[in-house]
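Protein record
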Amino acid sequence: MDDQSNIGRENDSHIDISESKDVQYWSEKLNVPEEVLKNAVRAAGTSVEDFMEHLEQNR
C-alpha cells in the first residue's frame, strides 16, 4: 500500500500532475496556482529543476 502522506516529499526532484495530492503539494510549495503548475509541467517536463527554469523564463 502506498503511503499517501509522502506524496511530493518522497521524490522532491519530480512533479506528478496525475496525482491531485502531488499537484496540491507542489502548488503550495512553489507558490503557484495549480493550473500554472500543470501547464508548466506539460511544457517543461516533470523535473522540478526544469519546471523552475521554464517558469523563470516565462514570467
Q: What stands out?
A: The CA atoms of residues 53 and 59 lie 10 Å apart. Residues 4-57 form one domain. The mean pLDDT is 85.
